[in-house]
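FAQ: What does the model actually see?

It sees only this:
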Amino acid sequence: MPTFEASIKTVPTGTDFKVTTEAGSIGTARQQIEKLYDPIYIRNLREVGGGSSLTDAGDVGGWVVIGSIVFVLWLIVEYWWIILPIAVICLIAWLYSIFSK
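And it is asked to produce this:
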């Protein structure tokens, strides 16, 4: 997510200071700064850090999870005739272990 920086002033007698925030767009960054600091003014709001790409570690991990889920669903659909009897046997064994106590 891109990092934005701005100079803001929060009190009439004070000096301005720099703040940074991470947001998806410059409009969202402005809203976050207004919500957090309630500034008198916001000046020089600009993007200072790069945005994300598909090669970020978090994004790659998400794609791996989604790919794994799709692969498991494909296995279930493709091999239902094997998975269904195994699932029934596991369910019977689980119920037996619960009710045999």
